[in-house]
Amino acid sequence: MACWALQITGLILGGIGMIGTFAITAMPQWRVSAFIEGNIVVFENIWEGLWMNCVYQVNIKMQCKFYDTVLALPPILEVSRGLMCFAVMLSVIAFLTAITGMKCTVCVGDNKQVRSNILLAAGIIFILTGILILIPVSWTASNIIGDFYNPAVHAGLKRDLGAALYLGWLSSAFLMIGGAIFCSFYSCADKPRTWRYSSHSCHRPH
């Protein structure tokens, strides 16, 4: 029962991380307007994501626009796109692999060693997905913070950490914790016990 509860917990954490991976890949709130100095009064709010940027002005509906060309994008944005798309794919594979190896499925029979191997694979993929998410999220956050404290960058061009970055760190944590739970089943797999001596061999006749 305890193993079953842990499997469900790992699957829920991995599922939340997978949904978060989809969300942060699509969200435009990676870089948002930083309201400092002359920008304290909110007349315009800018969001910049992996695929589009959005502008919200007072009394005007928000307008979003996809980036015109891939060739003009900065390298950090191109790399982030690739890593997040790969993370989305891996999160789905890990989730489906975890379901396949759980006790509630019958496609792998009752072989506990096979199940533990499948859960180990799912756990490793979950952890790898979490690491992949950390790279673009932390890289983007580092650039934002660097520009924010750089006096050479104009105040109007400075950005703040968006909600997608915080969700990225949270999703990465969920994925890696869920992956660690599934990996733990490999070391706890039931293995046939062998006894070198029977109970009778322990007693020698005098």
Rg of Cα set:
25 Å
Mean of residue pLDDT values: 82
Q: How can the largest sheet be summarized?
A: 5 strands, antiparallel
The sequence of SSEs as H and E is HEEEEHHEH
Q: What is the second-level CATH architecture of the domain at 1-27 and 74-190? A: Up-down Bundle
Structural class: alpha+beta
* Approximate shape: elongated
Strand order of the largest sheet: 4-3-2-1-5
CATH topology of the domain at 1-27 and 74-190: Butyryl-CoA Dehydrogenase, subunit A, domain 3
Tally of helical segments: 4
Quantity of strands, as a count: 5
- List segments where confidence is low: pLDDT < 50 over at least 5 consecutive residues: 190-204
User: Level of helix content?
Assistant: 55-70%
Cα(first) to Cα(last) distance is 47 Å
Percent strand equals: 5-15%
CATH class of the domain at 1-27 and 74-190: Mainly Alpha
